[in-house]
């Protein structure tokens, strides 16, 4: 009897060991993906007596959603083109004759930032009036929020937060310059978003344009940048032109900034910044002077003459003034005693001798650089 009981207990222990509840693993244990990406979770039965039935549920008991599919054997859950509502915990449930086991995984949907600003643009302000601009942002991870003001073609940070989902900009309008373009920007590792609000003075304010530099000197080949700023309400639109000439071919105008990528002598002149709004327009001027080194030529550059004749060589140079000229002989010999050089580059040698034959060099110089040219002279007996 005892033996029989013992055998029954032993065999049921054996059965219990073999006939076991399912043991599960899940992969990945957690995931963070971007919106519109696709992800699969795999639930694996590590051990346990077959047959095992697999099933997926959301931990919050909501429906899986129409973009969520479970594979034919129940082990793979796929979420296609994920959206924010797919975020949350998912549970794999395994059932066999011995019971039920569950295992969870969690899905996070990263979201690019979004911003909303109230009131919406344009906002009317009156002198001495107080106002507040409110910016709200969403996104995962939580974005930083910043209020900026666009000025001088750049942006100045007014106020910033990394901890709140809302940022209020409060101010009192004291001067027409307080009007302008305000930007709320939300930024996270997932991207950035911004919304602009234009603050206008009620009744409008005429533009006032000014440039950061009224005179610019540059050397040929350099890049030149001109900055123009305008106050006024509504925010003036800035355009650039050149007095009595079109803008250089290689130019870029962006906001109040005009960039000339590689200036030449012909780009010298007066540039006009024109700021226009409904209340009027205003112009500001920049004088550009492009300096170039001299480009020299000799006229003539080959001479055949007879002894006793007079030699005349004119060195001509284009470039920024003033230009000075120097004639010399190539090879170190000095100019003959009868040689004269005028200020404008003319070399004269009266009473040519055979020994005046040879190569002559003209060096033209200005404050940017030098240029040289050669002439060959042959004197026959
Ligand atoms: C500036 O803009 C105003 C208004 O559009 C226009 O009347 C004026 O001629 C412009 N000035 C120049 C230099 O283009």
From TrEMBL:
> Where would I find the Ig-like domain in this sequence?
22-108, 113-200, 207-289, 294-378
**Cellular component terms, GO, for this chain's entry?**
axon; neuronal cell body; plasma membrane
Annotated GO biological process: homophilic cell adhesion via plasma membrane adhesion molecules; synapse organization
Signal peptide (residue range) = 1-19
Is Glycoprotein given among the entry's keywords?
Answer: yes
The protein's GO terms of the molecular function aspect are: axon guidance receptor activity
Return the protein name.
Ig-like domain-containing protein
């Amino acid at each position: 009897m005892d033996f029989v009981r013992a055998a029954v207990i032993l065999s049921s222990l054996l059965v219990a060991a073999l006939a076991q509840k399912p043991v599960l693993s899940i992969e990945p244990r957690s995931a963070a993906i971007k919106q519109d990406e696709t992800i699969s979770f795999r639930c694996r039965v590590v051990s346990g007596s077959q047959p095992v039935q697999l099933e997926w549920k959301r931990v919050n008991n909501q429906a899986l959603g129409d973009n969520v599919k479970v594979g034919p054997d129940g082990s793979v859950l796929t979420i296609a083109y994920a959206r924010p509502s797919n975020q949350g915990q998912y549970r794999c449930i395994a059932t066999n004759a011995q019971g039920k086991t569950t295992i969870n995984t969690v899905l996070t949907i990263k979201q690019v930032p979004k911003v909303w600003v109230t009131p919406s643009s344009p906002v009317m302000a009156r002198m001495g009036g107080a106002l507040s601009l409110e910016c709200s942002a969403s996104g995962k991870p939580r974005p930083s929020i910043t209020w900026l003001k666009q000025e001088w073609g750049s942006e100045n940070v007014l106020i910033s937060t990394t901890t709140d989902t809302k940022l209020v900009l409060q101010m009192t309008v004291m001067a027409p310059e307080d009007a302008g373009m305000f930007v709320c920007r939300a930024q996270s590792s997932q991207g950035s978003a911004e919304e602009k609000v234009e603050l206008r003075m009620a009744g409008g304010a005429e533009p006032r344009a000014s440039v950061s530099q009224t005179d610019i000197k540059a050397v040929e080949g350099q890049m030149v940048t001109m900055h123009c700023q305008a106050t006024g309400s509504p925010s003036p639109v800035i355009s650039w032109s050149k007095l009595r000439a079109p803008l250089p071919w290689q130019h870029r105008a962006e906001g109040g900034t005009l960039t000339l990528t590689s200036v030449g002598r012909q780009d010298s002149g007066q540039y006009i910044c024109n700021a226009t709004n409904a209340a009027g327009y205003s112009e500001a001027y920049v004088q550009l002077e492009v300096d170039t080194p001299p480009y020299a030529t000799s006229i003539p550059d080959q001479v055949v003459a007879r002894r006793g004749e007079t030699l005349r060589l004119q060195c001509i140079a284009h470039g920024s003034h003033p230009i000075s000229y120097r004639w010399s002989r190539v090879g170190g010999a000095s100019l003959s005693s009868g040689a004269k050089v005028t200020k404008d580059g003319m070399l004269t040698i009266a009473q040519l001798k055979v020994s005046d034959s040879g190569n002559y060099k003209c060096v033209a110089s200005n404050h940017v650089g030098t240029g040289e040219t050669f002439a060959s002279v042959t004197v026959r007996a």
